[in-house]
Prior knowledge:
This protein is an alpha/beta fold. The protein has a domain of 196 residues: NAD(P)-binding Rossmann-like Domain (Rossmann fold, 3-Layer(aba) Sandwich). The protein has a six-stranded parallel beta sheet, sandwiched between helices. Strands 6-9 form a two-stranded parallel sheet. Strands 7-12 form a two-stranded parallel sheet. Helix 1 packs across helix 6 and helix 3 runs parallel beside helix 4. The radius of gyration is 18 Å and the shape is globular.
Amino acid sequence: xxxxxxxxxxxxxxxxxxxxxxxxxxxxxxxxxxxxxxxxxxxxxxxxxxxxxxxxxxxxxxxxxxxxxxxxxxxxxxxxxxxxxxxxxxxxxxxxxxxxxxxxxxxxxxxxxxxxxxxxxxxxxxxxxxxxxxxxxxxxxxxxxxxxxxxxxxxxxxxxxxxxxxxxxxxxxxxxxxxxxxxxxxxxxxxxxxxxxxxxxxxxxxxxxxxxxxxxxxxxxxxxxxxxxxxxxxxxxxxxxxxxxxxxxxxxxxxxxxxxxxxxxxxxxxxxxxxxxxxxxxxx
Length: 284
């Protein structure tokens, strides 16, 4: 089977690129080789490669910047998945597409299931929801995987930002009234490959996150503890740290449907974090 991967240089894409060759012949693309804001380029690449499996790990993920760049965010997060889905249908290919907990508004106070109605608060969440809707309406075979609070040892993310500040001795004031589930890119990639390798028809919408939950402040404290540095993390309210984009106060994902459907083990977010194979980078 030939596999086309987009976003291969990103957090999740990089981890997928390491694992997907066990499933078939991998054609990995990044922003330099495939600009997802260019619909014609997407069609050209898919028609040249003719994959049986398309995995879209690329996205516009700058949550705050999306408020001032909604057009670009929509092009990458909504229009591109629509084109990928259309081409996947034409090829008879399965499309794997990642979405986000930010499709929810955070008004609920128990973990969100796949049956809960989305209601995004920001431009990023709206464009990601539009991408989901386009994939589902396309008629292609799809696997939609919603993730939350993704971190990795590369790129730009909360883990690396906190680690840099802690090692530099900078003050750490972190929001403590937003609750979610930190999810490593490696966990997402490993679980995706496991699903694709073992499930005969892995189709539908599924949440894919570890169990448990914490706040951004709780996650920051776990990072500092893992680093072994002497740094104090001070909890603050969302109102004390205004940002262009509103975030949901609660966006915990219930992933029990995926665990039941695909025989996945339950793993707490802290266990996943502590078992990151390579550990935190020694130099940031």
